[in-house]
């Protein structure tokens, strides 16, 4: 379209230059049966006749310019719409990636919580084994000094320690039951 406008401009300018050349007497125009202008005022009047033609041509060229601007505006709008669509697609993709990352993070948090619970259970079981072995040791001591009244303080101390260990085992068992 721009090429057509350029060619039209060249043709109009060429026609104007050729007409001016003919009217100035540069070409033998005897076959036209026109009288050539004898002064510059007559030449101006001759060119003034073409004023209407050039005015109409200017209006047509202005309309063509408006049409070209409209076409460029449509193309620009289309490009912006395509860019908007591309950004929406990119945003949707980013949302999906964020959701996947969130799911992975939640899964990792769940695994970490399970590992913490398993570790806590192992610690409680180790404490339970310790208290069980202490109870067994206290039972062995109590069996040895059962009839000996001289060691009644030791007997009472062992009995109280055994009670404390039993209480600790029961507390640990409650915590283990909560973890299960």
Automatic annotation (TrEMBL):
Signal peptide: none annotated. One of its GO terms (molecular function) is protein-folding chaperone binding. Keywords: Coiled coil, Membrane, Transmembrane, Transmembrane helix. InterPro entries: BAG_domain. The keyword Electron transport does not apply. PROSITE patterns: BAG. Residues 95-129 form a coiled coil. The chain crosses the membrane at residues 48-68. Residues 142-180 form the BAG domain. The keyword Transferase does not apply. This is BAG domain-containing protein. The lineage of its organism: Bacteria, Pseudomonadati, Pseudomonadota, Gammaproteobacteria, Moraxellales.
